[in-house]
Q: What sequence folds into this?
């Protein structure tokens, strides 16, 4: 049996590769956080993305493309430097370089160009200092897959860092090429609140005790490699708990009926965006509306005359 056809029929904690996890290693199709988010878009979207239903994995994993600093640093810090194979090649264009890359992948390694290693090493070194300073990412195991049952349905999640103590915080590691600030994290945190609800839920089902919650450690992949730790407020978690409960109910109903509806057929009204309304009001109050309209008309005429209609 290949790794991607693995079928687990017992709840528990497992060490499973990314491809096997993404292929859904459970004996029946299981619900993970990505599928839960998509269910709230529409069940049809969740069906289409699920590897055991519509056939498209919810996330592609290709080690040949894992050359960005954040991805490799994430793997190296959590799983050790042995997870990476450093190759002394400028790129992967030559046949020899391609063979070296494929050999690394076949051994379960992430191929990394030597020229990229220094940048990754600096990120990992900063994370190691953070670990030593705070005690985070200690007394536990990395990349643990939790598989559990709720009623007749199965759930799964993959925790970046699962503490040995069941009541301790779960940890998730994020990297960013921008700033590790609360504002930028919040703007990119789509679905993270549901993750912070669903993962502790799974941990409690598997271990019999609820963890304190989930914390997100974000590190910048450029100097000075700043690190911030974020945690959702109780109000945000309460809201996410409701969304998770709704998603689980939808999942169960769709699985039982084998019906996966898409968007409703109803007509949806769309209003003018507030920023556009404010802009129009300002134009009218300032008397600049007519001037702008004339300028716009001239710009359109020029594009039509020159045939430059853009992309």
A:
């Amino acid at each position: 049996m290949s790794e991607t056809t693995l079928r687990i029929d017992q709840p528990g904690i497992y060490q499973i590769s990314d491809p096997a996890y993404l292929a859904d290693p459970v004996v029946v199709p299981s619900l993970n956080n990505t599928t839960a988010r998509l269910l709230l878009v529409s069940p049809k979207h969740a069906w289409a993305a699920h590897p055991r239903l519509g056939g498209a994995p919810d996330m592609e994993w290709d080690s040949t493309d894992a050359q960005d600093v954040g991805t490799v640093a994430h793997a190296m810090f959590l799983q050790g430097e042995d997870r990476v194979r450093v190759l002394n090649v400028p790129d992967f264009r030559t046949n020899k370089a391609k063979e070296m890359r494929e050999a690394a992948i076949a051994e379960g390694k992430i191929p990394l160009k030597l020229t990229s290693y220094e940048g990754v090493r600096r990120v990992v070194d900063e994370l190691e200092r953070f670990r030593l300073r705070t005690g985070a990412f200690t007394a536990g195991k990395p990349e643990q897959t939790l598989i559990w049952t709720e009623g007749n349905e199965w759930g799964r999640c993959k925790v970046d860092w699962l503490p040995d103590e069941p009541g301790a915080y779960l940890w998730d590691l994020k990297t960013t090429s921008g700033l590790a600030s609360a504002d930028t994290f919040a703007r990119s945190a789509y679905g993270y609140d549901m993750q912070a609800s669903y993962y502790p839920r799974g941990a409690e089902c598997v271990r019999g005790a609820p963890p304190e919650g989930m914390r997100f450690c974000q590190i910048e992949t450029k100097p000075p490699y700043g690190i911030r730790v974020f945690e959702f407020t109780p109000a945000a978690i309460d809201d996410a708990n409701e969304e998770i409960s709704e998603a689980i109910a939808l999942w169960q109903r769709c699985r039982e009926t084998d019906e996966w509806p898409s968007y409703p057929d109803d007509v949806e009204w769309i209003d003018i965006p507030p920023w556009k309304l404010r802009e129009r009001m300002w134009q009218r109050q300032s008397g600049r509306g007519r001037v702008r309209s004339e300028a716009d008309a001239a710009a359109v005429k020029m594009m039509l005359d020159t045939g430059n209609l853009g992309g």
In short: The chain is about 45% helix and 15% strand.
